[in-house]
Design a protein that fits this description.
The chain is of the alpha+beta class. The relative contact order is 0.17.
């Protein structure tokens, strides 16, 4: 009886399986978390790209005349340009455009939120806002 107990205590046959069973859920969670975090970074890149294109478009002088006056893009046109340039998970965002007629600026703002889901638990919701201020032609 004592010899049998001693052999069971010294046996290491299932140690690898137990270590694997403990390590795999953590590994899977980290891999999935990396994927979710990558989606947040992709959304940020899509927002930055769209803001850049919208800001460039907002500064254009449409239909210039010989007298030097021009037509500025409307907020609807800028919104269409920004939403068309969004990619990734942020593609459903609607921009907010604020016009300051005194300073002759337009502020284009995008806000994105994504809950951080890590398979076994839910993390905090990540919300970030990006905006660009552009001067428009007079």
């Amino acid at each position: 009886m004592i010899g049998r107990c001693k052999r069971l205590i010294e046996a290491e046959g299932g140690a690898g399986a137990i270590e694997f069973a403990l390590a795999v859920p953590v590994l899977v969670m980290f891999i999935y978390g990396t994927f979710v975090f990558g989606q947040v970074l992709e959304a940020d890149a899509g927002m930055q790209n769209a803001l850049g294109q919208g800001a460039r478009y907002a500064t254009l002088c449409l239909n210039p005349t010989s007298t030097g006056s021009c037509t500025n893009p409307t907020d609807t046109q800028i919104t269409t340009k920004v939403t068309g340039a969004l990619f990734g998970p942020a593609s459903g965002i609607t921009p907010t455009i604020t016009t300051d007629t005194t300073a002759k600026t337009k502020t284009i703002t995008l806000t994105y939120s994504q809950p951080m889901n890590f398979l076994f638990f839910t993390g905090p919701t990540v919300t970030f806002t990006r905006s660009k201020v552009v001067y428009y032609a007079v």
